[in-house]
Design goal:
Helix 1 packs antiparallel against helix 14, helix 3 runs parallel beside helix 6 and helix 5 packs across helix 10. The N and C termini lie close together (7 Å). The chain is mainly alpha-helical. It has 14 helices and no strands.
């Protein structure tokens, strides 16, 4: 237990360092955008490649991918219902920010630290399905709602996914696994070296981009979206941990993933749907604190 608390403390300390350096004027919030590009285009794909090399395609793989898609669709649907009679753009914002899991920025650093190897493989299996929805699927559905269209724009979905480095990385892993191939040793070594910086850079970026102000006219929207995510994911986590007949380690990893805040691209996708307020950024910041508490609880309770 002491080692778990110390590792969690290091993560929180790194976030605090980023936040206070921003408050001191050493970093600007825009520096977080630069770090996010380094993470998305370099350290995150490398961490995934080094941790999930030669993932075996099995019924469990398909189950976790399907589970990720189902969880995203459930949360997006509940977000749509929770938005009630609001305007279409706000309903789309509820869907986008109610669904999705920021696996790379939150879950992966913890899983890398506490459950390396097989734990990262389980995470990647789930995140392959999560990437399909969080990096394009939910946005395409929400954009149709925002514009009043009645059909899903498949061209928009394919285009969005194809431009995602994380999604392309998962597809490369899937293809390698399908043909029982492994990356060359030099590629694995380079990916391992670059991927080791992912946890630190991610936590530092989170601290730099952390916001604590909530616009008064958006308090209700923030509370509804955040409450929806927390309550539904807690319920899903309990059901999965107790009833899903998969390895215990996989269930622990899923509990960590379900505690994650929305995907970082949720803010961008929400703006692309025409929603101009600050609710997405505030939800992400508030959800971060909740996520860290929940993940620490998971690690302490499940060992």
């Amino acid at each position: 237990m002491a080692s778990v608390l110390m590792e969690c403390f290091y993560f929180v300390l790194t976030i605090a360092v980023g936040f206070f350096l921003k408050r001191a004027g050493i970093f600007k919030k825009t520096d977080g955008d630069v770090l996010s590009k380094v993470i998305v285009y370099i350290t995150l794909p490398c961490a995934v490649l080094s941790g999930a090399n030669a993932v075996a395609i099995s019924p469990l793989t398909l189950l976790l991918i399907g589970l990720a898609i189902a969880c995203n669709l459930l949360l997006a649907g509940l977000g749509y219902l929770a938005s009630g009679r609001k305007d279409p753009k706000t309903r789309a914002a509820y869907m986008i920010n109610g669904a999705g899991y920021n696996v790379g920025s939150v879950a992966l650093p913890f899983v890398q630290t506490f459950f390396p190897g097989a734990g990262v493989s389980y995470l990647c299996m789930f995140d392959a399905g999560n990437a399909v929805m969080g990096l394009g699927g939910i946005y395409s559905i929400a954009a149709s709602v925002a514009s009043g269209e009645k059909r899903l724009d498949l061209k928009r979905l394919v285009g969005t996914l194809s431009r995602s480095v994380c999604f392309d990385t998962y597809m490369a892993i899937f293809i390698l696994s399908l043909f029982h191939l492994e990356l060359p040793a030099v590629v694995r070594g380079a990916a391992s070296m670059m991927g080791k910086g992912n946890a630190f850079l991610t936590m530092l970026m989170v601290g730099i981009m952390l916001e604590v102000k909530i616009p008064r006219d958006e308090v209700r929207d923030v509370c509804v979206v955040l409450g929806l995510r927390v309550c539904v994911n807690l319920a899903l986590g309990c059901l999965i941990y107790v009833f899903l007949p998969i390895p215990l380690l996989a269930r622990k990893v899923l509990l960590i993933i379900l505690a994650c805040l929305p995907a970082s691209v949720a803010v961008v996708f929400t703006k692309m749907c025409g929603y101009k307020k600050d609710m997405p950024a505030v939800v992400s910041s508030a959800a971060l604190g909740v996520s860290l508490v929940e993940i620490m609880g998971v690690l302490l309770v499940t060992g």
